[in-house]
Amino acid sequence: ADWNAQNRRDYRWARAYGENILRTLPPRAVYVSESDHGGFTVLYLQQVHGMRPDVNDARTCGYPHLAEFEALPAELRERVGEFPARRFDPELFSWLILNVDRPVFFEKPPRFAPETGIRLVPAGLLWQALPPGVPEPPERNWWAEYQWPDWDDYPGEFTADAIRCEILFARARDLFWKARNMRSAGAAATLRAQALELIGMGLEYYGPEDAAALNNAGALCAKFGEFPAARDYFTRALEVLPHLAEARDNLERLEKRMAGDGVKE
Question: pTM here?
Protein backbone atom coordinates (compact mmCIF):
# COMPACT_ATOMS: atom_id res chain seq x y z
CA ALA A 1 0.00 0.00 0.00
CA ASP A 2 1.11 3.56 -0.66
CA TRP A 3 1.31 5.25 2.75
CA ASN A 4 1.36 8.75 1.31
CA ALA A 5 -1.89 8.11 -0.55
CA GLN A 6 -3.55 7.07 2.74
CA ASN A 7 -2.01 9.74 4.98
CA ARG A 8 -4.81 11.80 6.58
CA ARG A 9 -2.66 13.91 8.89
CA ASP A 10 -2.72 16.78 6.41
CA TYR A 11 -6.48 17.16 6.25
CA ARG A 12 -6.54 20.46 4.38
CA TRP A 13 -10.02 20.28 2.88
CA ALA A 14 -11.81 19.09 6.03
CA ARG A 15 -9.98 21.62 8.18
CA ALA A 16 -10.80 24.45 5.76
CA TYR A 17 -14.45 23.38 5.84
CA GLY A 18 -14.63 23.52 9.64
CA GLU A 19 -12.66 26.75 9.87
CA ASN A 20 -14.88 28.43 7.29
CA ILE A 21 -17.98 27.42 9.23
CA LEU A 22 -16.64 28.66 12.56
CA ARG A 23 -15.07 31.88 11.26
CA THR A 24 -18.21 33.09 9.51
CA LEU A 25 -21.02 32.18 11.91
CA PRO A 26 -22.47 35.05 13.96
CA PRO A 27 -21.99 35.21 17.75
CA ARG A 28 -23.71 32.48 19.80
CA ALA A 29 -24.80 30.62 16.69
CA VAL A 30 -26.20 27.10 16.79
CA TYR A 31 -24.75 24.96 14.01
CA VAL A 32 -26.55 21.72 13.14
CA SER A 33 -24.05 19.45 11.43
CA GLU A 34 -24.90 16.71 8.97
CA SER A 35 -21.62 15.49 7.49
CA ASP A 36 -18.67 13.89 9.23
CA HIS A 37 -16.34 16.44 7.66
CA GLY A 38 -18.51 19.16 9.19
CA GLY A 39 -19.39 17.87 12.63
CA PHE A 40 -16.17 16.11 13.59
CA THR A 41 -13.91 18.82 12.19
CA VAL A 42 -15.80 21.55 14.04
CA LEU A 43 -15.63 19.42 17.21
CA TYR A 44 -11.86 19.00 16.79
CA LEU A 45 -11.23 22.68 16.09
CA GLN A 46 -13.24 23.72 19.12
CA GLN A 47 -11.90 21.14 21.57
CA VAL A 48 -8.25 21.11 20.51
CA HIS A 49 -7.72 24.60 19.10
CA GLY A 50 -10.30 26.51 21.13
CA MET A 51 -12.02 28.06 18.12
CA ARG A 52 -15.35 29.80 18.64
CA PRO A 53 -16.45 28.45 22.03
CA ASP A 54 -19.62 30.55 21.68
CA VAL A 55 -20.83 28.32 18.81
CA ASN A 56 -22.52 25.00 19.55
CA ASP A 57 -23.09 22.04 17.25
CA ALA A 58 -26.58 20.80 18.07
CA ARG A 59 -25.96 17.37 16.53
CA THR A 60 -22.97 15.68 18.14
CA CYS A 61 -22.18 12.11 17.13
CA GLY A 62 -25.38 11.92 15.13
CA TYR A 63 -27.91 12.90 17.80
CA PRO A 64 -29.48 16.27 18.72
CA HIS A 65 -27.67 17.52 21.79
CA LEU A 66 -27.77 21.06 23.16
CA ALA A 67 -28.04 22.55 26.64
CA GLU A 68 -31.17 24.43 25.58
CA PHE A 69 -32.96 21.13 24.97
CA GLU A 70 -33.08 20.66 28.75
CA ALA A 71 -35.98 23.12 28.68
CA LEU A 72 -38.03 21.03 26.24
CA PRO A 73 -41.66 20.54 27.23
CA ALA A 74 -41.96 17.34 29.26
CA GLU A 75 -44.31 15.70 26.77
CA LEU A 76 -41.96 16.30 23.85
CA ARG A 77 -38.89 15.23 25.82
CA GLU A 78 -40.55 11.99 26.87
CA ARG A 79 -41.70 11.26 23.33
CA VAL A 80 -38.34 11.80 21.61
CA GLY A 81 -36.28 9.99 24.25
CA GLU A 82 -32.63 10.36 25.21
CA PHE A 83 -31.34 9.71 21.69
CA PRO A 84 -33.96 11.19 19.34
CA ALA A 85 -34.43 9.57 15.95
CA ARG A 86 -34.22 11.73 12.84
CA ARG A 87 -37.99 11.72 12.44
CA PHE A 88 -38.19 14.06 15.44
CA ASP A 89 -35.87 16.68 13.92
CA PRO A 90 -38.68 18.95 12.65
CA GLU A 91 -40.30 19.11 16.10
CA LEU A 92 -37.08 19.49 18.06
CA PHE A 93 -35.58 22.18 15.91
CA SER A 94 -38.88 24.00 15.45
CA TRP A 95 -39.04 24.29 19.22
CA LEU A 96 -35.44 25.52 19.34
CA ILE A 97 -35.90 28.14 16.62
CA LEU A 98 -39.18 29.43 18.06
CA ASN A 99 -38.16 29.48 21.72
CA VAL A 100 -34.43 30.16 21.95
CA ASP A 101 -32.87 33.50 21.06
CA ARG A 102 -29.91 32.17 19.10
CA PRO A 103 -29.31 32.13 15.32
CA VAL A 104 -29.64 28.59 13.96
CA PHE A 105 -27.84 27.26 10.89
CA PHE A 106 -28.18 23.85 9.23
CA GLU A 107 -26.05 21.84 6.85
CA LYS A 108 -29.20 19.97 5.83
CA PRO A 109 -32.38 21.40 7.35
CA PRO A 110 -35.41 19.26 8.12
CA ARG A 111 -38.77 19.96 6.53
CA PHE A 112 -40.54 22.29 8.91
CA ALA A 113 -44.32 22.24 9.11
CA PRO A 114 -45.79 25.27 7.30
CA GLU A 115 -47.72 26.31 10.39
CA THR A 116 -44.46 27.01 12.25
CA GLY A 117 -43.78 29.95 9.96
CA ILE A 118 -40.08 29.08 9.92
CA ARG A 119 -38.25 30.17 6.78
CA LEU A 120 -34.89 29.01 5.44
CA VAL A 121 -32.48 31.28 3.60
CA PRO A 122 -29.10 30.41 2.04
CA ALA A 123 -26.06 31.19 4.17
CA GLY A 124 -23.00 30.10 2.23
CA LEU A 125 -22.43 26.41 2.88
CA LEU A 126 -25.40 26.39 5.23
CA TRP A 127 -29.04 27.36 5.57
CA GLN A 128 -30.16 29.86 8.20
CA ALA A 129 -33.53 29.30 9.88
CA LEU A 130 -35.61 32.42 10.50
CA PRO A 131 -38.48 32.53 13.00
CA PRO A 132 -41.74 34.20 11.96
CA GLY A 133 -41.46 37.96 11.72
CA VAL A 134 -37.68 38.02 11.49
CA PRO A 135 -36.59 39.70 8.23
CA GLU A 136 -34.04 38.16 5.92
CA PRO A 137 -30.51 39.26 6.81
CA PRO A 138 -28.71 41.69 4.49
CA GLU A 139 -27.13 40.11 1.44
CA ARG A 140 -23.70 38.72 2.26
CA ASN A 141 -21.05 37.23 0.02
CA TRP A 142 -20.12 34.24 2.14
CA TRP A 143 -18.06 32.78 -0.68
CA ALA A 144 -15.68 35.75 -0.64
CA GLU A 145 -15.06 35.09 3.07
CA TYR A 146 -14.30 31.39 2.71
CA GLN A 147 -10.73 30.22 2.21
CA TRP A 148 -10.04 26.91 0.47
CA PRO A 149 -6.99 24.90 -0.58
CA ASP A 150 -6.04 24.86 -4.24
CA TRP A 151 -9.13 23.57 -6.04
CA ASP A 152 -7.40 20.53 -7.53
CA ASP A 153 -5.56 19.63 -4.32
CA TYR A 154 -6.01 15.96 -3.34
CA PRO A 155 -7.71 14.81 -6.55
CA GLY A 156 -9.72 11.63 -6.06
CA GLU A 157 -9.58 11.76 -2.25
CA PHE A 158 -13.08 11.04 -0.94
CA THR A 159 -13.50 13.83 1.61
CA ALA A 160 -11.92 16.46 -0.62
CA ASP A 161 -14.19 15.45 -3.49
CA ALA A 162 -17.25 15.40 -1.21
CA ILE A 163 -16.51 18.94 -0.06
CA ARG A 164 -15.88 20.14 -3.61
CA CYS A 165 -19.23 18.67 -4.63
CA GLU A 166 -20.96 20.31 -1.67
CA ILE A 167 -19.47 23.69 -2.56
CA LEU A 168 -20.70 23.43 -6.14
CA PHE A 169 -24.17 22.31 -5.06
CA ALA A 170 -24.38 25.23 -2.62
CA ARG A 171 -23.26 27.68 -5.29
CA ALA A 172 -25.93 26.23 -7.59
CA ARG A 173 -28.53 26.70 -4.85
CA ASP A 174 -27.51 30.35 -4.54
CA LEU A 175 -27.96 30.90 -8.28
CA PHE A 176 -31.40 29.27 -8.18
CA TRP A 177 -32.30 31.49 -5.23
CA LYS A 178 -31.10 34.64 -6.99
CA ALA A 179 -32.96 33.70 -10.18
CA ARG A 180 -36.27 33.68 -8.31
CA ASN A 181 -36.10 37.45 -7.84
CA MET A 182 -34.82 38.40 -11.29
CA ARG A 183 -37.15 40.69 -13.22
CA SER A 184 -35.70 39.60 -16.53
CA ALA A 185 -36.83 36.13 -17.59
CA GLY A 186 -33.76 35.83 -19.78
CA ALA A 187 -31.39 36.69 -16.95
CA ALA A 188 -33.16 34.24 -14.66
CA ALA A 189 -32.90 31.49 -17.27
CA THR A 190 -29.17 32.16 -17.59
CA LEU A 191 -28.67 31.80 -13.84
CA ARG A 192 -30.69 28.59 -13.74
CA ALA A 193 -28.66 27.14 -16.60
CA GLN A 194 -25.46 28.03 -14.74
CA ALA A 195 -26.83 26.35 -11.62
CA LEU A 196 -27.57 23.14 -13.51
CA GLU A 197 -24.04 23.19 -14.89
CA LEU A 198 -22.59 23.52 -11.38
CA ILE A 199 -24.64 20.54 -10.20
CA GLY A 200 -23.24 18.47 -13.05
CA MET A 201 -19.72 19.56 -12.14
CA GLY A 202 -20.30 18.61 -8.52
CA LEU A 203 -21.38 15.13 -9.53
CA GLU A 204 -18.25 14.71 -11.59
CA TYR A 205 -16.19 15.26 -8.44
CA TYR A 206 -18.24 13.11 -6.10
CA GLY A 207 -19.08 10.40 -8.59
CA PRO A 208 -21.58 10.63 -11.45
CA GLU A 209 -22.81 7.11 -10.65
CA ASP A 210 -23.24 7.59 -6.91
CA ALA A 211 -26.92 7.04 -6.08
CA ALA A 212 -27.00 9.24 -2.98
CA ALA A 213 -25.33 12.13 -4.80
CA LEU A 214 -27.70 11.76 -7.74
CA ASN A 215 -30.65 11.82 -5.35
CA ASN A 216 -29.30 14.98 -3.70
CA ALA A 217 -28.89 16.59 -7.11
CA GLY A 218 -32.48 15.70 -7.94
CA ALA A 219 -33.76 17.10 -4.65
CA LEU A 220 -31.95 20.39 -5.27
CA CYS A 221 -33.38 20.68 -8.77
CA ALA A 222 -36.89 19.80 -7.59
CA LYS A 223 -36.74 22.36 -4.79
CA PHE A 224 -36.23 25.13 -7.32
CA GLY A 225 -38.63 23.93 -9.99
CA GLU A 226 -36.21 22.25 -12.40
CA PHE A 227 -38.51 19.24 -12.61
CA PRO A 228 -37.24 17.50 -15.78
CA ALA A 229 -33.65 17.64 -14.50
CA ALA A 230 -34.79 16.42 -11.09
CA ARG A 231 -36.62 13.47 -12.62
CA ASP A 232 -33.55 12.56 -14.62
CA TYR A 233 -31.38 12.53 -11.50
CA PHE A 234 -33.87 10.49 -9.45
CA THR A 235 -34.21 8.01 -12.32
CA ARG A 236 -30.44 7.66 -12.62
CA ALA A 237 -30.15 7.15 -8.86
CA LEU A 238 -32.64 4.28 -9.03
CA GLU A 239 -30.85 2.74 -11.99
CA VAL A 240 -27.71 2.61 -9.86
CA LEU A 241 -29.45 1.55 -6.65
CA PRO A 242 -33.02 0.32 -7.32
CA HIS A 243 -33.83 -0.06 -3.63
CA LEU A 244 -32.95 3.52 -2.63
CA ALA A 245 -36.23 4.41 -0.93
CA GLU A 246 -35.55 8.14 -0.70
CA ALA A 247 -34.99 8.45 -4.45
CA ARG A 248 -38.06 6.32 -5.19
CA ASP A 249 -40.25 8.43 -2.90
CA ASN A 250 -38.83 11.64 -4.36
CA LEU A 251 -39.52 10.46 -7.90
CA GLU A 252 -43.10 9.49 -7.05
CA ARG A 253 -43.80 12.88 -5.46
CA LEU A 254 -42.19 14.66 -8.38
CA GLU A 255 -44.18 12.80 -11.02
CA LYS A 256 -47.43 13.61 -9.20
CA ARG A 257 -46.40 17.26 -9.02
CA MET A 258 -45.44 17.36 -12.70
CA ALA A 259 -48.72 15.73 -13.72
CA GLY A 260 -50.69 18.17 -11.60
CA ASP A 261 -48.83 21.21 -12.95
CA GLY A 262 -48.93 20.02 -16.54
CA VAL A 263 -45.14 20.17 -16.85
CA LYS A 264 -44.00 19.32 -20.35
CA GLU A 265 -41.36 16.74 -21.09
Answer: 0.91
